[in-house]
Predict the 3D structure of the following.
Amino acid sequence: MVNKSLQIAVTGLIQGVGFRPFVFRIATRHDLTGWVQNTNEDIRIEVTGTDQNLGCFLNSLSEEAPPAAIIEKITSLEIKTVSFPSFTIRDSHNLSDKITEISPDIAVCDDCLRDIEQHDNRFAYPFVNCTNCGPRFTIIRDLPYDRAKTTMGLFVMCEQCRKEYETITDRRFHAQPTACSHCGPHYEYFVGQEMISDRIAVILKCISVSIENGEIVLIKGLGGMHLACDAFNESAVKKLRDLKNREGKPFAVMFRDLKSLREYSEINPEEEKSLISWRRPIVLLQKKKVSGQQKLAAGLNVDLNLLGVMLPYMPIHYLLFDNLKTKAIVLTSGNFSSEPILIDNQAALKQLSPFVSASLFYNRDIYNRTDDSVVRVIGGHERIMRRSRGYVPAPVRTALNTDGIVAFGAELTNCFCVGKGNKAFLSQHIGDLQGLETTLFYEETIAQFIKLFRIEPTLLAVDMHPGYISTKTGLNYGNLPVFQVQHHHAHIASCMAEHGLDEKVIGIALDGTGYGPDGNSWGAEFMICDLNDFERITHFEYIAQPGGDLAAEEPWRMAISYLYKVYGDKFTELKLPFLSKIETEKLEMIPMMIDKNVNSPLTSSAGRLFDCVASLLDLVQVATFQAEGPMRLESLVISGCTESYPFQFIGAISFDDTIRGIIDDINSGISNSLIATKFHNTINLIIFEFANSIRLKQGLNKVVLSGGVFQNKYLLEGSIEILQKNEFEFYSHLTVPANDGGIALGQLAVASKRRELRCV
Ligand code: ZN
Ligand code: ZN
Ligand code: FE
């Protein structure tokens, strides 16, 4: 048999997921010699062997890759035959400074779960991990990814762990956080400030009893502290709401397994795929109507039919459910509303332990704070709503030169983004940049990303809003050129960058709010744009937003504003149930504010229109969480209805006739469900009509959809359907949030394009 040699390059998310040992194993299995090595951009392999063995090797390479590896491309090239004595893993230390990819955290794998049941040193040991699973990003202080540069650095491996770590055929070969009950971290159980036990069997028993008794407990998670209670216990859930000072925002629930989860949620195969993936996000699912069996606490997600659910992902979760009778626990971030999730044991002990029955900490530090990620399957694809644990810091690969660009993001649900080469590293979910704690987290994390990914900032990008903390942070960052990017242009550019588009497109941004260059608050923009610039073609007609930001929290203000616009003073004579709930002085105040232009900025926001309709149907008058109105409205939508309301185009898209139609329907006793559905259909029709008119005039056929409103499943699926039917090429977000969490990527893409064109 004649030997041949191949030079192979593998790109993708392949660092820190056991890829090189995997290559070693399959190469030796197929009788090949050669080597494997990490480089800056990829993993390089040279192998020598027979034709047949090389073929099998290539097959194994793509078919059997470690679960957390994401292979983007394998290229192979035949080279002059080289003879190697054996197969080796080559050192990559000389390249270490350039290696920038870090694996996100990976849910504990099945092999490790078996170790918890059997392995001598790892029996009931809650920190098991291997090259296929375990903490990654949350424990990394610096690169290269070596144990010493993680928060595992303080733990000295015992003899057995060391042996496994050094044995190339072992599952723990070069598993940086490897540990066992002899040498690794451990949990400690506190009541109040007092440490009661560090024995896992005792701890599990005590915590389980607390949860079963309807108490709240604090459990240190992978990326931060969690507060937990029995998801079936109404009073425990109420207690948790009071503790967190969180009135209405739904709580996420962790089920013990898929079987229990199925009893309470409708779940399709795509949703199941997300739930059991190694990223283990919170998946938003339709609640099942259950009869006869135990019901989940109604207070989890008051009257919403969406439920955020997840499956266990840390060994401690599995051990806990082994001791618990309940099928599900609430697992919510350990913080007070609006503050970032706590990561420090001492801080949590001080701030939260007075309010909980018990606290469970472990003695390994969390270095990079992450929240649980949130996804929703829309149109058969996973869409990310909150991008954090399990997803960050995997980069978005772009076709642009992003090097040295720092994009600061928006104000609410902030994420920032840094560029290296052609990659864009979007930060984990930071939160709303209003509280001091969140702002500190924001500044710290920017500094950490710059250090971790070896970024030398040369260009900055910020929003146009002068009042955003992110804008101010960017403008004060240093003596560097700054591009201010319009909010909705950034939304569209973000979706373009995600899909590698760099051309003129039809951009449709339906959103809550964003600063417009005319000084008004924009939020439903139909534009022609490329990465460099945009032209606003049309938008929802401007309407007064009485009370400014307050109107986003109090949807009734938008309802009155629309009613006053359509019916004038006569709106008070309309027989609408919701009007009776609002005090007369307030009803009189709004038209006065509008007439005198007192704190009533103009807006074209789609979010505010949804708020208005939610208020008209008396679903929400004062929101208890962000986007409650739109969520409740979507919650009512029924399938099979194709009716819609009329709308007009009078220089902008006017909803006067839509509002009249809705009021007539309310007065005729038409159900809220039907009205909500007709309203959604109207927006879908508008998306199509205006995309189509732009296509006819401009000859563009690519439509890019972005903005927070596209987190609405019915709306996005409806848009996709109508655009597809009419042969548009359309693009919507998949791996980057459609909400403001995706803005920074768009800012970065615009800045990169402008630099390229203007040689900044
Ligand atoms: Zn494992
Ligand atoms: Zn050990
Ligand atoms: Fe936005």
